[in-house]
Predict the 3D structure of the following.
Amino acid sequence: MDEREIKNIEEAAAARLEAARSLDELRAAEDGATGKRGALTQLNQRLKDVDAEARREFGRMLNEARSRLTSLAADRRTRLEADERRRRLEAERLDLGEVLPGPPRRGHLSLVTQTRDELEDVFVGMGFQVAEGPEVETDWHNFEALNIPKAHPARSGFDSLYLDWGDPESTLLRPHTSPVQIRLMQSQPPPIYAVMPGKVYRKDTPDASHNATFHQIEGLVVDRGITFGHLAGTIDSFVRAYFGRDVQSRLRPASFPFTEPSAEFEVTCAVCGGIGCRTCSGTGWIELGGCGMVHPNVFEAVGIDPEEWSGFAFGFGIDRCAIVRHGVSDIRVLLENDIRFIRQF
Amino acid sequence: MLVPLSWLRDFAPFDADDDAATDALAETFNDLGMVVEGIERVGEGLDGVVVARVLEVHGIEGADKIRRVLVDDGTGEPVQVVCGAWNFDAGAVVPFARVGAVLPGDFEIGRRKMKGVESHGMICSGAELRMGGDGKGILLLAPDVAAPGTPLADALGIEPDVVFDLAIETNRPDAMSIAGVARDAAARLGLPFAIPESVVPDGPVATADVASVVVESPELSPRFTAKAILDVVVGPSTSLVQRRLTLAGMRPINNVVDASNYVMLELGQPTHPYDLDQLPGHGLLVRAARPGEVVRTLDGVDRAVGDGENCLICDANGDPVGIGGIMGGESSEISASTTRVLLEAAYFTPMAIARTSKRLGLRSEASARFERGCDPEGIERAVNRFVSLLGVGVPTAGLLDVRSLPLERPAIHVRTARVNSLLGTSLPTEQIAGYLEPIGFAVAAADAVGLDVVPPSFRPDVFEEIHVVEEVARHHGYANITRTVPRSPFVGQLTPFQKNRRHLREVLAGVGASETLGIPLIGPGEAARAGLAEDAIEASEPMAREESRLRTSLLPTLLRAVSFNGSHREPGAWLFEIGHVFLVPAHRSAPLPDERELLGVALAGADAVTAKRVLDVIGQEFHVDVSLAATEDAPGLHPTRTAAVLLDGQAVGYVGEIDPGVLAEWGIEERVGWIELELERFLPRERSYVQARPISRFPSSDIDLAFVVPDTVPAALVESTLRDAAGELLEAVHLFDVYRGQGVPEGARSLAYRLRFQAQDRTLTDGDVARVRAQVIAAVESSHAARLRG
């Protein structure tokens, strides 16, 4: 044994470790160098054959060589493991841009439902309940109780579709959701804070801004001491909550049989922000719906004392809100049930 | 209603200085509920437009639409222009815009060349000058209007004006007149308002000596008056009258008709002038129509008026000469030769006019006012205004006046506290009076509680305290009422049913279905095409056959949607609708149809298996345990691939597929899976909370069992037997294979289940599992003529 032999063996072992191309080759090279039957181990066993002084010196050299080879093998392992991970990941490479469409695919809710839910949520947040009623109504609930007696000129404005059921003109597809107000006031005592969304029908030839079947949401508040100021405040809060904090509302005198005083309410034009444009006919305002203080005759029809209780009501179109917000130019598309339209939203 | 500012200023000194003043006035109208739908500035842009005489007209070679015209525009040199209008010839007097003039709409006139001919200006239509007309021809001026070169504005006496287009609410008949609009706005602005009195000295002949009035139907015409004007010469009106009528949207005709129209626009009282000499018997008789009667109205149309509520104006012999309050007749029309005019000024019952107008499909400026309610006490003023405006002829002395209308209106008690409690204001009584008096209300008495006010005769819409409250609110200004949000004593929330219904939509969207909207009506035959009974409630007067009966199922609507999408190259659409259907109730005496809210799901391109899986997802989501019962007679559905859905033994809907025959009827070329649920019965109406089951920390054991079971035994039954027999150690059971074929006898199939066993308190031993396995096998084999497969 001499220094040269140790050096040769170490160099040969180091070269094998360096040359290992896989973890298996590395393991074999390690075994060949520092393993139980490895070259260094064999040299170690021959230490007992040399004299004491040389043994110490060779022992030190062998230990140093072993330590260098072990560390070299560890480095080599780290590198090979990194290479192998890189190779495996490369083999799994996927361009997510070329993924073909397939399930799962989510469906889409109707634009009207989405709008209705959002409107309901605003009012629920203001402490309102959501009330519903039948789409086919009696003439009494739909007109008489709402201070629109037979032959009242306002009736013609509703373009109602009467049905062949019961007495002539006793049953109709409701042209507004107001009969739900009547049913609500009949079925529960005040105070009442409620909105009434639903489907309505009018004999109207459809065009880009009208459907015969459409959706309304109305509100009704009946309590002690309810004022016109409360009506204006409620409209204002709702408008800001739904349309945005900067959107303003205003009330203009109008005429409806079931409310007095009555008003139409308008909101700042969403297109021009109130400066005036074609959408708002240059006025800066978009008419949204009607409202007013519940007429004493309506209270009397449902047995509520108009001297003790007062209230307000308002109503507007859900479909209109939807088409304005989503830039739908022709309202008729809402009822076509064209999947190409529905899945946009 | 078109309202010229200059006309308004006859009644109150409205500021007309500039655009800002005009806009402020428009805002006042809006605030009062007379909504401004348009503002047009007229009489501007006429600088450089002069009167011109056409000298020569020549054709242009190669052009068949335009001509070369030489005009004298007062400069001495004939000017050559190219003109595309053909309604004039040499000698015509026309408006001429010189080069450099800027017409309304910023249209600058320049030198142009057309077909090689130079044009030095433009001959104008009325529309181009914003002076009315349809723009189809040149505005032809009177031959002697003014010398060529005279500025057009000077020649026609045109002044710049502003015309407001106001939308008047149905409860405001008083505002259907210039004076009424002025009164309302003046009151709001604190301006003095007055209607100038027309002083008309009566002539020597008494009205009763030349004409008569008989009213047989006072219920249709509670006040009817007439006065004659003798020695009338029919001719054109003054330029002021003509201009104002034009601005207000009416066509000038002659001085008599124009005066009548002018008074109607100004004061809101329609009148009707007759040629007295064309009225047989020289008188008027007012009566209800008789069956079968026909009247030829001014517009030359024969109208069947035979209804007892139609009010006819007849000659003294009782022959109709017009429809009261709506339109006069042809026979007694004012003509160029008329010399004696009989003027009718009446008050007709508003509801009767409204119904007659609707029945006949005939509306006029007069009927629009009468049906809302004219001022019965404004008749004298209107008659005097007519006579003074006419300016020719001699009025007869006295008014023939047949009246059944009460003279006085009752006072309305208005409580100050009531006004304030409804409006949210704190107005003192004097302020309330201050809002009411300028708009014609008379304060009869005032005390600590409030006021007694008498509404003016021109406000028929005001007869209760609440109506007065609205007037106070209007004149106080809606915008001046402080806005506050009322405090609801409730916590707002949806009902459990409403929450569940929203959740159901989300679940369906989650499995890939999109929501459609149905209309409540279908056409005849549509139900039959969907395999349903045709029995349905029909509409009395539908818009169209396709929307003439109430739907009794969501099938037709969803079939329509599937078919529509299929034919637009979108097969495989998964659609659902939550909507109402209307069944014919069992009893004819029921006031309303049997209306139900349903969920319908149409899975195009998917079969009953998929539909069942979607139903399972829904069932799991709402923690409802539905069971199925095969049915062969669900209307419109596949007889051998459909089951009724049962909840607690009650039928709540169907699951399966749509009948292939129905699909063929609708041109649908793919299978369509179907779910239908009645929401009121299916969705939980109460809140219920699933109680947690602890997850066992001990290991579970699985066993697989395959049984050969006759086809006649529903798989659901086998599973329920399995569950019962396995007892509480059973953690889960899944059907994982269904096999028919070799090794399994005809008329049976192999059903393979995986059962997982687990205990909460210990690890199961092999003995535990073997015991349960034996129980399960014995139970299934004995209950269902089944045998364990080897």
